[in-house]
Write a structure and sequence with these properties.
Number of strands: 10
Distance between the termini: 50 Å
Bound molecules: coenzyme A
Structural class: alpha+beta
Number of domains: 1
CATH superfamily: Gcn5-related N-acetyltransferase (GNAT)
Strand content: 35-45%
Shape: globular
CATH topology: Aminopeptidase
Length: about 180
């Protein structure tokens, strides 16, 4: 028999590591792949990494990190979602939805009531399609020089059935993810 075997369909995988190499495999080596350099922020790497592979190629990623937060003056934890990325040639096919859905299924097992993400304003409608809600209040985050108001949009999603919108001031007690 001749010819190539049929391509494998995209498969969800838990990634043991996610470094600059894996990020570049998805987004290439541009110097601002997430379009957030202008914000001038320091970020934390994520702890749990979810990916989509097809024929050995990594095509999508979403990362999670549990972080301390103060909501209405009460200290608790949130699951931060970040590093959401899909290779440019396979966008618009639902891969971000799939990889974020897989990450959130795991986030629901981690304990916190909320997932939190930061994004550029044009991505708010996309995340709304995925079940996230824009926070109306300003959010403070830590930076090496001290707390600052997050210049990007902050969105939240419930991780427990009974989690209603976070009320009061939201302050991340760490660098953002
Ligand atoms: C943002 C990004 C991850 C989206 O990936 P994608 O695979 O094209 O997204 P999907 O195809 O899964 O789309 C997700 C949903 O958002 C919807 N959507 C996409 N663009 C939209 C828009 N501008 N407005 C409203 N909804 C939109 C899609 O229709 C889909 O909804 P559906 O599943 O109900 O049809 C991708 O463009 C990317 O990697 N960009 C560069 C890195 C980046 O900016 N990451 C975000 C960091 S916060």
């Amino acid at each position: 028999m001749t010819g190539n075997p049929p391509s494998a369909s995209p498969t969800m995988v838990r990634l043991a590591r996610y470094t600059e190499t894996e990020l570049q495999e998805i987004l290439g080596d541009g110097d601002d792949p997430f379009g957030v350099a202008e914000a001038g922020l320091a970020w934390l790497p994520k702890e749990d990494h979810f990916g989509i592979r097809s024929d050995g190629r990594l095509m999508a990623h979403a990362g999670l990190l549990v972080l301390p937060v103060s909501i209405g003056g009460v200290e608790t934890k949130v699951v931060g979602l970040g590093g959401v990325a899909v290779a440019p040639d396979v966008r618009g096919r639902g891969l971000a939805r799939r990889v974020v859905t897989a990450a959130l299924a795991h986030a629901r097992t981690l304990g916190p009531r909320y997932g939190l993400l930061f994004c550029r304003p044009p991505l708010v409608p996309l995340y709304q399609r995925l079940g996230w809600h824009a926070l109306s209040q300003d959010v403070q985050v830590e930076q090496p020089e001290g707390p600052v108001v997050m210049p990007l949009r902050t969105m939240w999603t419930p991780l427990h059935d009974d989690a209603s919108a976070p009320e009061g001031a939201v302050r991340l007690l760490s660098l953002p993810m």
